[in-house]
């Protein structure tokens, strides 16, 4: 995930900005493994293989 | 317009269902698209991008970015900083692979997300585009309101979507193609028949351009231009916030 995305990312649930980034692994394209956290509603979103999963709720 | 009796009208369009369906068909998606469309979709995308008129420096949201074809054509056409969003992780991984092969010079950030609840601040984008993705939205009104929210004032949205022509002969020909010929192609190519059946039914049951125009206006958009292509088999809508 490219770090420039953080400028526009907001929590998909409560729309709070900015999201808090926790980096586990990175390369020259950005964050490969990590986590995005909303400090307002406490939702967390994983980043795996460089792609953040920001789908808010699984709907079954 | 009467529909063929075997068309499913109440399709399951929950985001999780759409995401997993596209995950499943990713391996055959590009090949089957090429076979079924004869590349006319490239022409429709080009016309859409010409209308959207992306300028260098524009931040552009590519909704239902899929395997990245619209983003790649946009980069070849006009440039801009494109951000892709899609429900399907497998489609996004394919999109990134294609992008790395062809466009090493420009970034293409992608994320897995739901177009009805996007993870963006208000007014984040100058332009937005969605190619052949609106018909998979469970709530078209909610989708349009969400895109309106993430566009800046004066920002533009281009929608390109398949449609059933209103000329009787052409309409019957297209329905025959979708319900008889396309399933045959999918079977011969060992594609997932139930998923492609869904895609055909989603075209046939999609709201008419008149209904769609009403929804766009209700979401707060001003229609700038609406184009009918290929005798009504496709429509492009250019809207302004």
Give a brief rundown of this model.
The complex is a heterodimer of chains A (60) and B (241). Chain A has 60 residues and is mostly beta strands.
Q: What does this protein look like?
A:
The complex is a heterodimer of chains A (60) and B (241). Chain A is mostly beta strands. Chain A has one domain: Single Sheet (N-terminal domain of TfIIb). Helices cover 0% and strands 38% of the residues of chain A. A 4-stranded antiparallel β-sheet of chain A has the order 1-2-3-4, with no helix packed on it. In chain A, strand 3 and strand 4 form a beta hairpin. Chain A is globular and about 30 Å long. The mean pLDDT of chain A is 93. With 241 residues, chain B is an alpha/beta fold. Chain B has one domain: Rossmann fold (3-Layer(aba) Sandwich), CATH 3.40.50.150. Chain B is 47% helix and 20% strand. Chain B contains 8 helices and 7 strands; from the N terminus they run ααβαβαββαβαααββ. Chain B has a 7-stranded mixed β-sheet with strand order 3-2-1-4-5-7-6, sandwiched between helices. In chain B, helix 1 crosses helix 4, helix 2 packs across helix 3 and helix 6 runs antiparallel to helix 7. Chain B is globular. The mean pLDDT of chain B is 87. Chains A and B meet through strand 4 of A and helix 1, helix 4 and strand 3 of B.
Write the layout of secondary structure elements.
The complex is a heterodimer of chains A (60) and B (241).
Chain A: E1 20-27, E2 30-37, E3 44-48, E4 51-52
Antiparallel strand pairs in A: 1-2, 2-3, 3-4
Chain B: H1 15-37, H2 40-52, E1 59-63, H3 69-77, E2 81-86, H4 89-102, E3 110-112, E4 125-131, H5 140-150, E5 151-162, H6 168-188, H7 193-204, H8 209-218, E6 222-229, E7 234-240
Parallel strand pairs in B: 1-2, 1-4, 2-3, 4-5
Antiparallel strand pairs in B: 5-7, 6-7
Helix pairs in contact in B: 1-4, 2-3, 6-7
């Amino acid at each position: 995930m490219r770090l420039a995305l953080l400028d526009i990312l907001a929590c998909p649930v409560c729309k709070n900005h900015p999201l808090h980034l926790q980096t586990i692994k990175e390369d020259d394209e950005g964050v490969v493994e990590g986590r995005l956290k909303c400090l307002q509603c406490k939702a967390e979103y994983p980043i795996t293989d460089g792609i953040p999963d920001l789908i808010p709720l699984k709907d079954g | 317009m009467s529909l063929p009796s075997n068309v499913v009208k109440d399709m399951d369009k929950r985001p999780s269902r759409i995401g997993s369906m596209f995950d499943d068909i990713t391996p055959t998606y590009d090949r089957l698209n090429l076979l079924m469309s004869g590349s006319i979709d490239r022409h429709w995308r080009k016309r859409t991008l010409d209308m959207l008129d992306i300028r260098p420096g524009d931040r552009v949201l590519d909704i239902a970015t899929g395997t990245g074809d619209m983003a790649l054509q946009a980069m070849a056409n006009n440039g801009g900083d494109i951000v892709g969003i899609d429900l399907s992780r497998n489609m996004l991984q394919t999109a990134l692979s294609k992008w790395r092969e062809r466009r090493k010079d420009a970034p293409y950030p992608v994320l897995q997300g739901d177009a009805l609840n996007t993870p963006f601040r208000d007014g984040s984008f100058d332009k937005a585009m969605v190619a052949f993705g609106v018909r998979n939205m469970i709530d078209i009104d909610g989708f349009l309101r969400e895109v309106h929210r993430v566009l800046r004032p004066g920002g533009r949205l281009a929608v390109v979507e398949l449609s059933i022509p209103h000329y009787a002969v052409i309409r019957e020909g297209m329905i025959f193609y979708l319900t008889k010929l396309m399933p045959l192609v999918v079977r011969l190519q060992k594609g997932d028949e139930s998923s492609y059946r869904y895609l055909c039914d989603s075209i046939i049951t999609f709201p008419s351009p008149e209904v769609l125009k009403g929804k766009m206006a209700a979401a707060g958009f001003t229609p700038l231009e609406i184009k009918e292509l290929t005798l009504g088999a496709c429509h492009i809508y250019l809207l302004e916030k």
